[in-house]
Automatic annotation (TrEMBL):
Domain IPT/TIG, first and last residues per copy: 1-76
Gene: PLXNA4
InterPro entries linked: Ig-like_fold, Ig_E-set, IPT_dom, Plexin
Phylogenetic lineage: Eukaryota, Metazoa, Chordata, Craniata, Vertebrata
Protein species of origin: Nothobranchius pienaari
Protein name per its UniProtKB record: Plexin A4
A GO BP annotation: regulation of cell migration
């Protein structure tokens, strides 16, 4: 989970994630910026939510392979500061 303003680093785990060359991670209908990957993981950074708070589906594609799993990411309210002393 991460703030609606985006910027959260997300780690996705699986197997053979280092195969192929074109990686795409989507959070509902917007991309999660791909950062790097290894055989059992890939990492991306979220963009600001276009849909406000709540869960969005996550999909991963490597080349033409659509990796299907019931993946969800939760956008939550941005952090706030209430007091500084």
């Amino acid at each position: 989970r991460g703030p609606v303003s985006g910027g959260t680093i997300v780690n996705i785990t699986g197997s053979h994630l280092d195969s192929g060359s074109n990686v795409s991670v989507m959070f509902k209908d917007q991309p999660c910026t791909y950062l790097r990957r290894g055989g059992q993981w890939l990492t991306c950074r979220t963009h600001a939510s276009l849909h406000g708070y709540g869960n969005v589906s996550v999909s991963v594609s490597i080349d033409k392979a659509q990796l299907q799993k019931d993946l969800q990411f939760e956008y939550v309210e941005d952090p706030t500061i209430t007091k500084i002393e």
